[in-house]
Amino acid sequence: MKILISHPTSNSNNRAVVKGLSQAAMLYEFHTSIASFQGDLLERLGGFKPFKEIKRRQFDLELKDFTHSYPFLEAGRIASLKLGLDNLTKHEKGFFSIDKIYKSLDKRMALRLLKTSKDNLAGIYGYEDGAFASFTNAKKSGIQCFYDLPIGYWRTARKLMKIEKERWPDWASTLTGLQDSEGKLQRKDDELALADIIFVASSFTAKTLLDYTGKLAPVEIIPYGFPTPTTLKNYTPLSGKRKLKILFVGLLSQRKGIADTFEVANKLKDFVELTVVGRKVTNDCEVLNKELSKHNWIPSLPHNEVLNLMRTHDVLVFPSIFEGFGLVITEAMSQGTPVITTDHTVGPDIIAHEENGWLIKAGSTDELQKCIEDILTKPEKLADVGKAAKETAEKRPWEVYGQEVAEAIAKYNKII
Alpha-carbon distance 137 to 113, whole Å? Predict the structure, then answer.
């Protein structure tokens, strides 16, 4: 069987699936916005600072003959973000908004299905917000629809964010995920209704689908892979006056638990040093601006520098309230840096509490504080837990994720 797959911006998990399908001889075509390959003009342009974003869109040469790209809208989005032209990227409405880019590629896939031979094409693999039109045409042609839900279901998100608004009213403006229009939310539900199988990357995401009111397709839980583990991590004993170096990486939103992080860091300020890496989701949150002034704040860093920073810290804190996976978790573990995270991330799928990381209840500042206090009383455990985290990463490279998705698709095709 052959699979048509698309993703407007591509990312690590999408690349792994594309590669997995290719290696299983199951890839029909791959469609994206910007794609460069070794030796082509785009790759050379990526060597210049203004075009460095292109470097993130470089793919293996083995995929070149399968890849189709449509760079106009995505190039416009990137340029608009750099120039601060916010109206052009405005949520759902901007000409270069991410929503418009997803819809545009989805429509292209829908048209592609009408023009392609059905003899070789057995399925289409699409992602949330970019699959409705293509899945609709696929159903008309008897083509299977494989749906990737990278984050939890929206109805669950709304319930949890309502609780957060009541728990942290001063941080409500950071909960920007509540801005989706009714039309966009209905489209998400319509995509789920059309899916023949749903892929999620964590047990938590699967649980959120219990809030879906319609008939649901089978759900496959396949956690993402880990980056290449480091060999450079050094564990410095926590002795003398050295404070525990805590790192938070992610959008500065209470969806990610940033208020809980600051609350605990402030209470334990005599014993911990907090560094925060991430961009603001709003400039209108007074309490966020106040907290950032108290701690080390880095608005943005290239990915390789984020990994380097992870290695220099004792522990990553990621107390997310609502997550599909939490890539920073696996990134930190690959660097030998242990993670404190919640049961609303991939944590329960890959972390054994106090063995290769720590798990706490989402939305519990008390549990986060107690966990850090326990580490402070037994700092020698940091090295053991960090080494165990890296060993976990070594067992699951990105290639394994891609292979498992391809195997699940093949298995499903045989069942039907």
Answer: 7
Count of C-beta atoms within a 10 Å radius of residue 98: 18
pLDDT tens for the chain, 416 residues: list them.
Answer: 899 999 999 999 999 999 999 999 999 999 999 998 988 877 777 677 666 777 788 899 999 999 999 999 998 998 898 888 989 999 999 999 999 999 999 999 999 998 876 678 999 999 999 999 999 999 999 999 999 999 999 999 999 999 999 999 999 999 986 788 999 999 999 999 999 999 999 999 999 999 999 999 999 999 999 999 999 999 998 887 899 999 999 999 999 999 999 999 999 999 999 999 999 999 999 999 999 999 999 999 989 999 999 999 999 999 999 999 999 999 999 999 999 999 999 999 999 999 999 999 999 999 999 999 999 999 999 999 999 999 999 999 999 999 999 999 999 876 54
| 317 three-class SS | strand
Q: Which residues, including other chains, have CB under 8 Å from residue 124's CB and lie 6 or more apart?
A: 3, 4, 5, 109, 113, 131, 134, 135, 138, 143, 144, 145, 146
d(CA 168, CA 399): 40
How far, in Å, CA of 65 to CA of 53, rounded? 22
Q: How many CA atoms lie within 13 A of 54 on its CB side?
A: 19
Among 271, 279, 273, 277, smallest CA distance to 246 is for: 273
Strands laid side by side in the 296-298 sheet: 296-298, 272-277, 244-249, 315-318, 339-342, 358-360
Nearest to 356 by CA among 323, 334, 327: 334
- Beta bridge partner(s), residue 265: none
Sheet of 197-200, strand order: 67-69, 27-32, 2-6, 121-127, 144-148, 197-200, 219-221
Rounded CA separation 286/228 (Å): 39
